[in-house]
Design goal:
By secondary structure, the protein is of the alpha/beta class. About 40% of the residues lie in helices and about 20% in strands. The chain has an eight-stranded mixed beta sheet with strand order 4-3-2-5-1-6-7-8, with helices on both faces. The protein has a six-stranded mixed beta sheet with strand order 12-13-17-14-15-16. Helix 1 crosses helix 5 and helix 8 packs parallel to helix 9. The two termini are about 25 Å apart.
Length: about 425
């Protein structure tokens, strides 16, 4: 396949990330097992670190992948969603899968399906997951760090057998699919907990933590809780970095430095450190230096990312109330500015009211916009939650940023957020990661 063939073929599968999940019935782990069988079960070729949760999954997965890479291992990293290019989802030792390699894998997928089950119709995420696992097998990785897509129990990634399972902070998101209570959502996320794997959990609300504890007990696995078994103490942070100390089981890690900003990112990094220590307990050679170097080298786009200065232009993929709160707190804590101009766009089906409750009160000016995605919500629908503040509207993210720049002074901050689709459109052509 060439790139055009690859794009056309993969886009022929139903993509719930674009159109939104209609019901829980769209998830079917048996379908993923069937697909993996067609590929010869590539997920069995590597030990996995499996990451589920509501917030911070991608950051936590990247932290632990970089730690393992620093320790000298060949590490596959599978994350979602992507920001600018679907190839971002599949990496080995920080290198994004090349276009020829992805096209080759798509060709393998097409051939296997046509020869074995021509009527079989997996989803986009399922076929992409199978391609990632097959690529990892072909490249003979030592470890695979796998981020769950949505939920955990029925997510396509849940065919892996993890050495360590990590559960990041759980909050309300995808409630139509995962349930209306934290306990229901935690139950779905805890579906990645399996016998033989140590479980690391970030700090959780009591309702969610109770479910995680019960899942660990029923599976006979040990729970390592950040904040209890692994301590964390903030030192300082600014718009470029966070510095903090961690009390681990093997040693204390002083003056840890990361370049993903916000207190929530120090929790994500500490969860990764706890996971690395769990691997050390299993005999994996990881040093304290590997851990500190690994988390410091981690960079991820659209996580409170500064793409401009004077004024600051900050982009973030916050798409629920809890993520919006973390963004708000990070902006207040890590930046000095006079006025805050909020550029906000959201996806249909998200908790727009919750996001607005966090972000609207701290904004001096608001510009509502819409991403080009099929799931982009109309600015008028977002405008219902402006809490009596006047908001301008535009029909594109590009126009919204230009509108914000017209009135922004050098000491102001423009914050572009609401979904990864919005963040992706905001950063195109501006970031060194592209």
């Amino acid at each position: 396949m060439n790139k055009g063939d690859r794009v056309e073929y993969l886009n022929s599968f139903v993509d719930y990330e674009k159109i939104g999940h209609k019901a829980r019935e769209s998830f079917d782990l048996d379908r993923m097992r069937r697909l993996a069988g067609i590929f010869g079960n590539p997920e069995r070729s590597f030990p996995a670190i499996h990451v589920a949760g509501t917030k911070g999954k991608g950051s936590t997965a990247s932290f632990i992948a970089n730690i393992l890479e620093e320790a000298g291992f060949r590490v596959g990293l599978y994350t979602s969603p992507h920001v600018t290019d679907a190839r971002e989802r599949i990496k080995i030792n920080s290198e994004t899968i090349s276009e020829p390699d992805l096209a080759h894998q798509a060709g393998i997928a097409r051939q296997l399906l046509e020869e074995n089950e021509p009527g079989f119709d997996p989803t986009y995420f399922e076929i992409y997951t199978a391609i990632a696992f097959n690529y990892f097998r072909e490249k003979k990785i030592d470890y695979g760090v796998i981020e769950a897509g949505l939920g955990g129990r029925l997510d396509a990634t849940n065919i892996v057998e993890p050495a360590v399972s990590i559960i990041t902070p759980i909050s309300y998101d995808h409630v139509r699919i995962l349930g209306n209570t934290l306990a229901d959502i935690a139950s779905e996320k805890s579906g990645i907990i399996k016998r033989g794997a140590t479980v690391v959990s970030a700090p959780q609300e009591a309702e969610a933590l109770s479910v995680i504890r019960m899942a660990c007990e029923s599976s006979g696995v040990r729970l390592v809780l950040v904040g209890r078994d692994v301590g964390i103490k903030e030192v300082r942070g600014d718009y470029e970095k966070e510095i903090f100390n961690v009390r681990g089981a093997f040693e204390d890690y002083r003056n840890c430095r990361i370049h993903l900003i916000g207190r929530h990112q120090t929790i994500n990094a500490t969860s990764a450190i706890a996971a690395a220590e769990c691997l050390r307990e299993k005999g994996v050679a990881i040093s304290g230096e590997n851990i500190k170097n690994g988390i410091e080298k981690t960079r991820i786009p659209a996580r409170c990312e500064v793409i401009g200065k004077k004024p600051y232009i900050i982009i973030d993929g916050a798409q629920n109330k809890a993520s919006a709160r973390a963004l708000k707190e990070t902006i207040r804590r890590n930046f000095k500015y006079e006025k805050l101009i909020l550029v906000l766009g959201a996806s249909k089906g998200k908790d727009i009211k919750g996001m607005c409750e966090e972000l609207v009160p701290v904004a001096d000016r608001i510009i509502l916009t819409k991403a080009k995605s099929e799931r982009g919500e109309e600015p008028a629908a977002i405008g219902e939650f402006m809490q009596n503040k006047v908001a301008a509207t535009t029909d594109s993210v590009e126009k919204a940023i230009k509108e914000a720049e017209k009135t922004a002074g050098a000491e102001d901050a423009i914050v572009v957020t609401g979904s990864f689709y919005v963040a992706a459109e905001a950063r195109r052509g501006t970031s060194p990661y592209i």
